[in-house]
Specification:
heterodimer, A: mainly alpha, Serine Threonine Protein Phosphatase 5, Tetratricopeptide repeat, B: mainly alpha, rod-shaped
């Protein structure tokens, strides 16, 4: 009944791809034009929050190990925190710009969760490779997100962050339950 | 004088900035990537062979979803964004 893990990754990839297009458009036109209509200002924080909410069913239904559950719940909380903080900032309920730091913190948490819950080496399988790649992409992306938090109007940091999200979406699309990576596939991963 | 103003506004409207072009290209470029992906990996389009695939693989066909994301972005987000961009650029020039 529950979708295969690779299908779940692809669905999150679709959500992140749309999110990245919004972020890229915002980086191109600038925040003044982007926030000209209020629904657009709320779009990406709402989407981030929604992705966090949708991560809870993933945590509940994909209980292959305790570390998987912990990782998925950490992502759910991190995404919801970012979405809620950004919604608060856009709405004007939150005034302290330190709330912008929730984004780099969430990326570090997500990156570490990816790295810690993947217990196999890089070339064990494509899935293992992608988990390592996603983890390090998010950790590296947190540096760009930190720059964005310090200077929210910087087109370079905004575009850089959008590119990070596009990269994450592309990596999620590459996921397969059992598939080789650069010709490597461990027999323990299900290779025949 | 009025005719001159009208001409200037019309010229400003037709002179698209690089921002205008870049935002307009995002959706079609995304859809194009999805189309190329579908051509490179046709087995990802499970509708071509529906009997071999289960429900979730028929629902989530990634190249088609990438095309759909590009289309939705282009027709839902971009038109209003371009109108606002033109308005702000006209006001600032």
């Amino acid at each position: 009944m529950a979708p295969p893990a690779e299908v779940v990754h692809w669905m999150f990839g679709v959500g992140l791809l749309f999110l990245s297009l919004c972020l890229l458009a915002e980086a191109i036109v600038g925040p003044v034009v982007w926030r000209h209509r209020s629904w657009r200002a709320y779009l990406w924080p709402s989407l981030a929050f929604l992705l966090g909410v949708l991560m809870w069913p993933v945590m509940v239904f994909y209980t292959s190990s305790a570390i998987h559950m912990l990782a998925h719940s950490a992502w759910a909380q991190a995404l919801m925190l970012v979405g809620a903080a950004q919604l608060g900032l856009v709405r004007g309920k939150l005034h302290n710009q330190l709330w912008e730091l929730t984004l780099p913190v969430a990326l570090v948490v997500s990156g570490l969760a990816f790295l810690l819950h993947e217990q196999n080496p890089w070339f064990f399988s494509r899935s293992a490779f992608l988990h390592h790649a996603l983890g390090w992409t998010l950790v590296a992306g947190s540096v760009i997100a930190l720059g964005r938090a310090v200077n929210p109007r910087s087109p370079a940091f905004n575009a850089g962050f959008a590119v990070i999200v596009i990269t994450v979406a592309a990596l999620l699309f590459c996921d397969r339950n059992v598939a080789p990576i650069f010709g490597h596939l461990s027999p323990l991963a299900g290779a025949r | 004088m009025d005719a001159e103003l009208v001409r200037q506004r019309a010229r400003a409207r037709t002179r698209h900035t690089w921002r205008h072009t870049a935002v307009s290209a995002l959706g079609p470029m995304t859809a194009l990537v999805g189309l190329i992906w579908a051509l490179v990996q046709p087995y990802r389009i499970t509708l071509l062979d529906p009997d071999k695939h289960s429900f979730w693989y028929l629902v989530v066909q990634t190249p088609l979803l990438v095309i759909l994301v590009g289309v939705i972005f282009h027709f839902w987000v971009v038109p209003g964004l371009l109108a606002d961009l033109e308005e702000v650029e006209e006001r600032s020039s």
